[in-house]
UniProtKB/TrEMBL annotation:
GO terms for molecular function: transferase activity. Pfam families: GST_C (PF00043), GST_N (PF02798). This is Glutathione S-transferase family protein. Belongs to the GST superfamily. The keyword Ribonucleoprotein does not apply. PANTHER family: GLUTATHIONE S-TRANSFERASE FAMILY PROTEIN, GLUTATHIONE S-TRANSFERASE-RELATED. It comes from Rugamonas fusca. SUPFAM superfamilies: GST C-terminal domain-like (SSF47616), Thioredoxin-like (SSF52833).
Length: 210
């Protein structure tokens, strides 16, 4: 089975983290770039790929993968030699899946509610509980450092590190010393530097504001 895949990507979007991941994996892929300013993500051609009109999406050997966390999990498992996904049977596999799922099921929904200034939902009715407990859960883990699984760097750190970069830049959560140090570690990696440089090229090509 070929491991070549197509990554549907838009610069200056959440799929930038996936671009960092494929650089970490040294993956064999084709980049299909969407211009979100031109609304290409809402055109029939892309809606046939992902009816939600969201990026990233991956097409590999006839298998379509959407949803950000699913894309990370799929690609990290597709390239096991990169060591970014603890294997089944590894004691770190469970914690790895935990922090991957926590991002998509708790952190991001809570963040969106917070950013939109939605009234708090009673914790008994809210999938992510309450804001303070949710945020403390992840910040406590980051304070243990240097990565989410201790000394082992994984795809979960690509997800969280790239997300926290823009989240703190917009002031949506405080940039505590632990979060700042974590972001700096991720941004110092060659894959992050290469991927963000590529994204800057794509921004320029689309005449998007930097």
């Amino acid at each position: 089975m070929s491991r070549h895949f197509t990554l549907f990507h838009a610069p200056q979007s959440r799929s930038t983290g996936t671009l960092v991941l494929v650089h970490e994996l040294k993956a064999d892929y084709t980049l299909h770039v969407l211009n979100m300013k031109a609304g290409e993500q809402r055109q029939p051609e892309y809606l046939a790929v992902n009816p939600m009109g969201k990026v990233p999406a991956v097409l590999h050997d006839g298998a379509l993968v959407t949803e950000q966390v699913a894309v990370y999990l799929y690609l990290a498992d597709l390239y096991p030699e990169a060591g970014l996904a603890p294997a089944i049977g590894d004691p770190l596999r469970g914690p790895y899946l935990r922090w991957m799922a926590f991002y998509g099921s708790s952190f991001e929904p809570a963040l969106c509610d917070r950013a939109m200034k939605h009234a708090p939902t009673p914790p008994s009715m809210c999938p992510w509980g309450d804001w303070d407990t949710m945020l403390k859960t992840i910040t406590d883990q980051l304070e243990k450092g240097p990565y989410l699984l201790g000394e082992k760097f994984t795809a979960a750190d690509v997800l969280w590190g790239t997300a926290l970069t823009w989240i703190t830049a917009f002031g949506l959560i405080p940039k505590t010393p632990a979060i700042a140090a974590y972001i700096e570690r991720i941004q110092a990696r060659p894959a992050y530097i290469a991927a963000t440089a590529k994204d800057a090229e794509l921004v320029a090509a689309q005449n998007l504001p930097a």
